[in-house]
Amino acid sequence: MTYRPEFRAMIAAHVDTVNWLEKDPDRRQAIVLAQRTAMAPPPHPAPIPVAQTWVEELGHSDLVARVYRPDVEGVLPVLLYFHGGGWIGGTLDVLDDSCRIIANSAECVVVNADYRLAPEHPYPVPLEDCMDWIEWVDRQIGRFGGDPNNVAVAGNSAGGHLATAAVLRARAAGRADFAAQVLVYPVLAASVAAGSYRTNERGPFLSGPQMAFFWESYLGRPVEPADLANPDLSPGTASDLAGVPPTILVSAENDPLSDECDAYAAALRKAGVPIAARRYEGQIHGFFTMSRVTGDAHHATIEAARRLRDAFDATGRKELQQLWDASAWR
Predict the structure, then answer these.
(1) Residue 282 — φ and ψ, nearest 5°?
(2) Between 159 and which of 20, 68, 82, 283 could a Cys-Cys bridge form, CB atoms 3.0 to 4.6 Å apart?
(3) Is 255 noted as a catalytic residue in this protein?
(4) Boundaries of domain holding 189
(5) At residue 13, does pLDDT exceed 80?
(6) If you ran DSSP here, which 8-state letter would residue 253 be given?
(7) Average pLDDT for residues 160-172, to the nearest whole number?
(8) Is 284 helix (H, G, I), strand (E, B) or coil?
């Protein structure tokens, strides 16, 4: 396996000492708490400037969202973004840089929304929180100069899983008008059997056993074959992808999730869903939010934001695919 130069020293020094196969509940909870600490980003010396930010409460819980607005006049489109963290960790700070860059580059209001975490709050609670944030955007985003009729959803890793599943739930409820979904190395299938799981079994930044631990924490049990037929759990293998919004998909070569990302992109193309997909060679799971470590993070964020702007402005799905095809992901 070949890694980007900026990660080689980190990878060489990486030793995974966690027993991801641990079954004792107390020891598993200790692993969860240690992972939450490890996932916390280091303090940033200075945030990327945007015109305005707010912290808003969901209303019926302690959950909050951070809202970003660029220095652009008028009513703006909206991106609702969910962080990653294996459903057990992650915070709004993980996405702060990405949200600020996208707000400025795509000229949209960005809502960086939190959700309750497993294992204390297993499935379906995190997904239901995301559905509640979609409703919150519909009702409240006008207060921040956002257009509730031009909304996209996004997520990284487990957040990408929640975003994709939420879109399918919304479609089942009669809503199929999202402008786009922006998915960054999303979890798309309730399975740990793909070839890329074997290739990346030892990680280093996400391993097959680690993903199995995350799934068991989210579900309260190991994954089962029947989970592949549940769109809440396996949105990437849904039998019907009609009405799925135009999709911007970022993946990494050295990632257990890379095969399911490739399979989802192929399924969307077959279903006629506009798709702009880019796999970053030599990259690892998590690189997108490492803008202060690797140049690929900033590049991927800018390129995704450019295509998101296209989706917000699109007059039709066919025209959008033609535009994306003609605009190389540099």
Answers:
(1) 75, 0
(2) 82
(3) yes
(4) 5-326
(5) no
(6) E
(7) 97
(8) strand
Q: Could you tell me which of 58, 57, 56 has the C-alpha nearest to residue 69?
A: 56
Our answer to whether residue 285 is catalytic in this structure is yes
Of 98, 157, 234, 291, the active-site residue reads: 157
Give the Cα separation of 6 and 205 in Å (integer): 14
Locus of tokens 């302690």: 62
Of the residues 129, 132, 227, 255, which is catalytic?
A: 255
pLDDT tier at 45 (50, 70, 90 boundaries)?
low
Instruction: State pLDDT tens for residues 276-299.
Output: 999 999 999 999 998 878 999 999
Give the tokens for residue 129.
Answer: 């929180």
pLDDT of residue 258: 97
pLDDT band at 168 (very low <50, low <70, confident <90, very high): very high
Q: What's the domain count of the chain?
A: 1
Which token pair is 222?
């190991």
Tell me, what amino acid is at 153? V
End-to-end CA distance of the chain: 23
Q: What per-residue string of b and e applies to 301-311 under the rule 16 or more CB within 10 Å gives b?
A: bebbbbbbbbb
Q: DSSP labels for 133-150?
A: HHHHHHHHGGGGTEEEEE
What pLDDT shows up at residue 105?
A: 97
Residues 6+ apart with CB under 8 A from 271: 241, 242, 244
Q: Are 206 and 35 in contact (CB under 8 A)?
A: no
Which tokens go with 134?
Answer: 């979609």
Please name the residue that has the structure tokens 């039998």.
239
> Quick one: tokens of 24?
């004792």
| Number of Cβ atoms within 10 Å of the Cβ of 91 | 16
Adjacent-strand bridge partners of 231? none
pLDDT at 15: 67
**What backbone phi and psi angles, to 5 degrees, belong to 155?**
-170, 150
Q: What is the CATH number of the domain that holds 88?
A: 3.40.50.1820
Q: What is the pLDDT of residue 189?
A: 97
Our answer to whether residue 296 is catalytic in this structure is no
Residue that has been written with the tokens 């641990």 in this structure: 22
Quick one: average pLDDT of 251-280?
Answer: 96
Retrieve residue 2's tokens: 């070949």
